[in-house]
Amino acid sequence: MILPLLLLLLLLSLLLLLLHIHLLHRKFAHLPGPPRTHFLLGHAPYLLARYKEDNTGFTLGLELRRKYGAVVVLWYALRPQVLVTDVKSIRETVLSHRHGKLEQRPEAKLFRQRFVGQKSIFVNPGDERWRQTRSLYNAHFTRFRLRRYHDDVKLVARRLCYQLGCLADSDQEVDMNMWMNLAACDIIGRVAFNWDIDSVSRRDEMLAVYLSEAFTGVALATGVPLSGVLPRYGAMKQTAVRAVRRLREECGTQIRAHQEMREKERQKRNEMEETDNTIDRQVDEDSGEGCLLDEILLLHPHDTETQIDEMVAMFVAGQETVAHVTTFAICHVMRDPALVDVAQIQDYMDQEEEGQDLLPRLTSLDYLMKETLRLYAPVPGLRRILSRDTHVSGHVLPRGAEIVHAMVLYAHLEDTWGEDVTRFRPSRFEVRTRKRHPHSFLPFGIGPRACIGKELAKVEFKTILAHLLSEFKLIPREGDEIRAVRAASLKPLSGYMCFVQHNNCN
After folding, report:
1. What does the pLDDT read at residue 434?
2. Tell me: the pLDDT tens digits for 251-261?
3. How many degrees, rounded to 5, is the angle at CA 140 between CA 119 and CA 144?
4. HEC states along 437-460?
């Protein structure tokens, strides 16, 4: 009696599942897109095969746009995703507060290990707590506030140049991608958390290694949805989970050390308060009070796990992305030094020693950064979950649809950028043209969720490049082409190995 009942329940469950899949397919049937290659897996087998041919996905995305238009629905198993390449719809779908973000992100929990947490600034879908935290971060990373931290960035740049100087004028190959990752890790530590990690000088410092292994895990979780249960990925999962645990332990240790330091400073101020207010003010200035970590501790005073979440989120959002963009720029400059104005850089370096901040005058590095972000945008697109039916490019996208504005494809359209769209040419940004829609180039996003650290990224990029190019000549390894691969972000696959020589003029 029990067995037939179980079989009946199983049959009913299967029928309900098939009905759910059928209704889900009907909900998106009016949207254009390639035929599904599998009833259950959707386009997943086809997309995985194409990604093996084209690691970046640019070619496939442009093919889909040419064939099906500015709206294309793709099925990742039972999860539909609408690829949008209509810049005019950004105002309605991205700038509007109506539409939210994904409720579940792999960065929140990586293979069931807490990574940045579900409520951190990086993954929070947008509740009141997110708005409070976002307001705090926005205030901390304004252009005016970052002037205080420029010296921190310059210190890391000088340490980097010292280490590369030890390797210069030899036959030793230099991995520029590794060095940029170390430098980016150090800069976030100093600017945001008053934490002198100094992984540039101490390459055995493991924080940057943990971040790299964690990012590899994120790429696995997003690129292979079933990786969490497939045995073949067991070793990679263990490495990623172990890295995340140790990363969080390191951040927890730093939080405790920071709290102890602040407590000692308070005690010292209290002792001096009655005797000398001038000394008191000097102690305040020297202590580095007011860093982002202090604000995080005030916002979440009794929640250590959330404090760690916010620290990890800052490293996740700002370390690998800036490092890879800087690496791609270096790859092109060492193959064509004329891409930058050397005299402009040398003038900046000469006057920098006199205490003048001339970063805004490094226009050639501005153009270099923009062109690098155009061709090698670390984040492929802007994701939103529609809260209501929305008209986009002549189609009605249903409520609850996950849409992805493919920003990387906007930067590869000939009708916007010309026939030389694939050529690396920073000079294209020297002249503004009305031909480009204002939303056709949004490397840092737009709207309430635009990149918090965009001003820091600009300072970091220009300071590191100015110091490197004023002191060294970088010679690429022979036969090494610049290639990219899509992982947790777009990262260099090859082309970043080089030899370092001191400039003759220095």
Report:
1. 61
2. 999 999 999 99
3. 155
4. CCCCCCCCCCHHHCCCCHHHHHHH
What is d(CA 84, CA 146) in angstroms, rounded to the nearest whole number?
Answer: 35
Distance (Å) of CA 61 to CA 11, 33, 378, 413: 40, 12, 16, 11
User: How many residues would you count in the chain?
Assistant: 506
- Supply 29's token pair: 């049937």
Q: What percent of the chain has pLDDT over 90?
A: 43
On whether the CB atoms of residues 409 and 85 are closer than 8 A, the answer is: yes
Asked if residues 494 and 380 have their Cβ atoms less than 8 Å apart, the reply is: no
The span from the CA of 37 to the CA of 362, in Å, is: 51
Q: Which amino acid is at 109?
A: K
Record the pTM: 0.89
Instruction: Report the alpha-carbon distance of residue 206 to residue 176 in Å, rounded.
Output: 18
CA 199 – CA 186 distance, rounded (Å): 6
Positive or negative torsion for Cα 216, 333, 315, 105: negative
- Pairing state between β 402-405 and 79-84: parallel
- Digit-coded pLDDT (tens) for 219-267: 888 877 778 888 899 999 999 999 999 999 999 999 999 999 988 888 8
Token code pair at residue 411: 């930067």
Q: What share of the chain is helix, strand, coil (3-state, %, to 5)?
A: 55, 10, 30
Rounded-to-integer distance, Cα 197 and Cα 210, Å = 13
DSSP H or E stretch at residue 392: strand 390-392
Helix (H, G, I), strand (E, B) or coil at 222: helix
- DSSP class of residue 38 equals B
CB 452 within 8 A of CB 133: no
Tokens of 219: 């790429």
Residue 399 to residues 7, 245, 390: CA-CA distances in angstroms? 36, 37, 7
The DSSP element (H or E) to which 110 belongs, if any, is strand 109-110
SS3 assignment for 112-156: CEECCCCCCCCCCCCCHHHHHHHHHHHHHCCHHHHHHHHHHHHHH
Tokens found for residue 170: 């030899």
